[in-house]
Every structure is written in structure tokens, then in C-alpha cells.
Design goal:
The chain is α+β, with helices and mostly antiparallel strands and 306 residues long. It has helices spanning 11-21, 33-39, 41-44, 50-53, 100-115, 146-154, 246-260, 275-284, and strands at 2-5, 58-67, 70-82, 85-95, 121-124, 141-142, 158-168, 183-189, 197-204, 207-216, 229-237, 265-271, 287-298. It has two domains: 2-163 and 293-298, Aminopeptidase (3-Layer(aba) Sandwich), CATH 3.40.630; 183-263, Aminopeptidase (3-Layer(aba) Sandwich), CATH 3.40.630. Strands 1, 2, 3, 4, 5, 6, 7, 8, 9, 10, 11, 12 and 13 form a 13-stranded mixed beta sheet that branches. The longest helix is centred in the middle third of the chain and has 16 residues, at 100-115.
């Protein structure tokens, strides 16, 4: 087995590897070589695509484990600074089931590389540096990649944050009566998806008291199947108006409006420990599709300022 630094001539085999690896990850669709090349441009050119990377990284590197000409494992890392702390970032790590030795080898290679920059910790699958086409917005390391979760845990990483995703295929909602007098505004915005994103705001006496924002699945994937999905990324009701059914009303209204323009399926997400939201969504009609987690490993303590 060889551990090699990524070069552009590996693009085809690496894209095929990524598509095999993520085939069972919910809301993760096959990608084309050109899409993968975009997220790896910081490795090959040293100049990351800011639109795709989000916050951007420095000193990106990627390592590939190859055996008998077949990719067995892959890791993509970089550096960033968070509150004046040098942090290593694992954007993506994957290995074929049964090829644990290959996963271990690329992880050790990447850690050794990051440690040369004196990082104090390494964060894996943080949402700020996720691949845009990997899962839905906010997603971290999926439960479907449990072999990767196991490898990180075995190597001293712990879960530091996470998101639970729920979805509702072929959703249907029955109009419900408004629970309290409100005025609604509907704002459509054309993003990356085939259908536009939708923002709903609820006002009472000109005061904003609730809102719901949903985006197209096309925001994260160009695959045709993703275009049928909407993902509600924000739902909030101001404190004094909670518990009166306004959240359910606004969410149902958004789902109805988006159904009219062609959406067929709905997804929603919340933080892994927000059981109140999980209880609400699961009783609205959604079902848990995936749990995803960020991981972190402390390398050294941050020096205390004098």
C-alpha cells in the first residue's frame, strides 16, 4: 500500500471512491469530477475556492492510500485560526470498510503534517469547512460512515457538536387555522437550486414574532434528485409567543407554498441535543434520517497569556 499526496491525475479514481463511500449517506448524491476538483483546488493551487470552502483554509493538503491501483482511503486537511488559536481541520476523511489499516495510515499522515504547524487541536467535519455537496447544510460526519466515526474515536477524537436530520418523503400537510392573529409575508429567492428558496415571516402589530426559512436541496447538490427536496434551515418563534402553535402554523404554511411550485419532499434539522425541537419535528410528520457529528482532538493546551 502506498500513501501519496493528492495530485490532479488522481481525480477520476478519487471521485469514484468518494461516490462509492457516500452512496448510503442520506442526501448525499453522486458528484462529477469537476465538482470534486473545485473543493480540492486549494490542495493543487494553494488558492482555495472561497465560494465553496466558506471560511477558507491555509496550507491545504490531501493524502490518498492506494493498493493495487485502487483508492482505499482519503483525507483532506488544512489550517485555520480560531480566536488566535492555530487549529488543524479535517475537511473529509473516508476509507473502504475493511480497510482500517488504510484509514489509519492516512489519518496518521495527516496528523503528522498538521503537527508541523504546531496546531493546538484538530477538528474533523466541522460544518464551516464541509464539502458543499456532502449532505445537507450543517451536516457533519454521518452515522452512515460509522467506520470513520470509529476510527476517529479510537484515535482520541471526541464528539464536540452535531446535527440531527429528519426528512419527510412525499409530504402532505393539511391547512391549519392561524392560532393567533398574524400577518404573513412570503419572500422567494432564487439560489443554486431548480426551485427558489422560501422565507416566511409572521408579524403582529408590525413586530416580527416568527419566521421560517427553507432552501432547495439544490443548494448543496446539482444532482436532479436533490431538486425535489426542500430543507428548512431556520424556524423560530419569539419567546412570548411560543407554545401557542405559531411555529407549526408557519412551518405548515411554508410547506404548502413550496409544494405548489414543485417541491415533493421535505427535510429539517436541529442540533443533536435540542430534544424539544426533535420532539416537535417528529410529531409534525418528519422522521429521523441521520445523526451527524463534529469531532475534535486536543493536541496541546493553548498557552495562557501572561
Amino acid at each position: 500500500m502506498e500513501i501519496l499526496q493528492y495530485t490532479a491525475d488522481m481525480q477520476t479514481s478519487l471521485t469514484q471512491f468518494y461516490n462509492r463511500l457516500t452512496a448510503d449517506v442520506p442526501h448525499c448524491y453522486p458528484i462529477m469530477e469537476e465538482e470534486f476538483a473545485i473543493v480540492l483546488c486549494g490542495v493543487t493551487t494553494g488558492k482555495a475556492d472561497k465560494n465553496d470552502v466558506g471560511l477558507g483554509l491555509d496550507s491545504e493538503a490531501a493524502f490518498v492510500a492506494i493498493q493495487n491501483g485502487i483508492v482505499q482511503a482519503f483525507i483532506h486537511v488544512g489550517l485555520t485560526q480560531i480566536r488566535e488559536e492555530d487549529v488543524g481541520i479535517i475537511r473529509f476523511l473516508g476509507y473502504e470498510r475493511g480497510a482500517r489499516h488504510a484509514g489509519q495510515a492516512v489519518l496518521e499522515k495527516a496528523e503528522a503534517y498538521l503537527k508541523t504547524f504546531n496546531v493546538t487541536r484538530i477538528a474533523a467535519f466541522e460544518t464551516n469547512w464541509r464539502y458543499r455537496f456532502y449532505h445537507l447544510e450543517y451536516a457533519s460526519l454521518s452515522d452512515a460512515l460509522d467506520q470513520v466515526q470509529g476510527l476517529l474515536g479510537f484515535n482520541g477524537y471526541h464528539r464536540s457538536n452535531g446535527w440531527v436530520f429528519l426528512d419527510w418523503e412525499n409530504y402532505t400537510v393539511t391547512p391549519i387555522s392561524v392560532p393567533i392573529p398574524v400577518t404573513l409575508s412570503v419572500d422567494w429567492h432564487q439560489g443554486r437550486g431548480e426551485h427558489p428558496d422560501c422565507g416566511i415571516k409572521a408579524y403582529r402589530d408590525d413586530e416580527l414574532i416568527g419566521e421560517c426559512f427553507s432552501v432547495s436541496g439544490g443548494e448543496t447538490s446539482s444532482h436532479p434528485d436533490a431538486q425535489d427536496w426542500l430543507h428548512t434551515v431556520w424556524l423560530e418563534v419569539e419567546g412570548p409567543f411560543q407554545g401557542q402553535g405559531l411555529g407549526r402554523y408557519v412551518l405548515h404554511y411554508a410547506l404548502q407554498e413550496m409544494k405548489k411550485i414543485g417541491y415533493r419532499h421535505a427535510a429539517i434539522s436541529t442540533r443533536w441535543d435540542d430534544y424539544r425541537a426533535l420532539l416537535f419535528y417528529s410529531n409534525c410528520g418528519y422522521r429521523v434520517a441521520d445523526w451527524t457529528y463534529e469531532y475534535e482532538k486536543v493536541i496541546s493546551k493553548v498557552p495562557t497569556p501572561n
